[in-house]
Amino acid sequence: MNFTIANSQPLDRSIQPKAAPANEIKIKDAQTFTLDNGLKVFVVEDHKLPQLYYSFRFDIDDKIYGEKAGVTEIFSKVAGTATTTMTKDELNRAFDLIGAAFAFTNKNGYVSGLTKYHGKMIELFADVILNPVFTDEEFDLAKSQTISELDYISADAKQMVQIVAQILMNGKNHPHGEMMTRESIENITVADLEEYYNTFIAPNAARLVIVGDITLAQAKADTEKYFGKWKKREVPKFEYETPKFPEISRVAFVHKEGAVQSEVKICYPLDRKPYGGDSFETNIMAQILGGGASGRLFQNLREKHGYTYGCYNTLQDDDVIGFYSAHASVRGEITDSAVQQILFEMNRIVDSTVTQKDLDGAKAFFMGDFGRSLQRSSTLANFAIALEKYDLPADFFKNYLKKIDAVTVEGVQWAAKKYILPQNAWIVVVGDKKYAASLKQFATDGKVEIYDMYANLIETLGPSRDYSTYLLGAVLVVLLGTFILLQRSTAKRRKALKNRM
Fold first, then answer.
1. Other Cβ atoms closer than 10 A to 342
2. Which of 18, 32, 33, 473, CA to CA, is 20 to 30 A from 7?
3. Residue 54, phi then psi, degrees to nearest 5
4. In the prediction, which pLDDT does 154 show?
5. CB of 406 closer than 8 Å to CB of 423
6. 214 closest CA partner among 26, 52, 374
7. Residue 38 carries which DSSP code?
8. Is the pLDDT of residue 293 over 70?
9. How would DSSP label each residue in 428-480?
10. 146 or 480, greater pLDDT
């Protein structure tokens, strides 16, 4: 039997199919209630699978710990290892028996598992949150691990450039710029962890999100039973001067003995809060510039010049202070060339509009990433908290795809002009010092500042001398001297001639 297709035309593969208009996404709304102790509870019912996810998020301001920098890191390692009712082994065995995963750190905690074990899950979770014990054994182990991590950082250029960049961007008098050391870790005691818990972990500074196969009535009964008697307390707040990007481009170099590669990071702080009004244009712009293998930074430094295995950027928002960073690992001898090309791409996205093809590719990435994220319970928990915490419209995430689709090439360039600031950046490099002088050209003042791994200034390499100016000056001096000698010689001859007469 033969089949024919009437009026068939050859397929023109040069024409990219047009995407269908973005639709509103169906996302379940969170139902909310608040316990008498101030604990805010969000319940997202989803009965497709017999699973449950409980997530605590604590609103805790960052704090400077000075001689005890590292308290939050040690707390996160020790918290959740034991309670007043269960040893570490007993606690782990109890979670394993019901097949549940859990964690508890200084700012959040979660547990997830099967619905049929929801009673045991929340009972154990409440025990971890309300009755933690910081044993000497776990405390000593956490300190030892942290000191080993510091030793690793001091030997790893990638870690070093990250630390130095954080300190330079934010300053040592800001929590984001505070660096823990071996000495500060040694100064921390178990009492410091207990003080942290008793100061910051409180129901009135927390949000509990429950996602999955549960009813609102059951969630209310469970949370009241296990968290209703948790006492509220006044949780301190801290304010610090907002870090500013440098008024001029500055070059910071950290010497690493024997380094054959340079770790390059071009960065600066940004006062950019989560879910701001320009977040869609800004995120798409950053994706085009350096969000992946299709980004301009990658295409330039790897595909075109072969300087690196990869070059990417990060544009991070934050409740306190965000940042922009472009980073790459390059061969030492082409450090200056790599910096030049990163700056070139940063300037290019500011000075000219992106192509429609670039824009469509970035949109497709975010739409796909957003769709995949909806399969995770943690995503729905994040949405529920964000809507309340940042006072977003109720349909913000439901219209997420529409907002992405509405971004234009003009909007992308506007975002680039606002947030891409190559003339106000820290150019931080960790590598062999013999390549440092070649970076003077990128500093507005012509100087390269040499730092140690804790961002302490060691020395400054001044601007290169303009020998042409010195040469011109020397020539002028010689000409002036010759002129004076000729004048004197002429005066002597005239005087001698006059005497003869």
1. 30
2. 18
3. -110, 135
4. 85
5. no
6. 52
7. S
8. yes
9. EEEE-GGGTGGGGGGSTTS-EEEE-TT--EEEEEPPPP-HHHHHHHHHHHHHH
10. 146
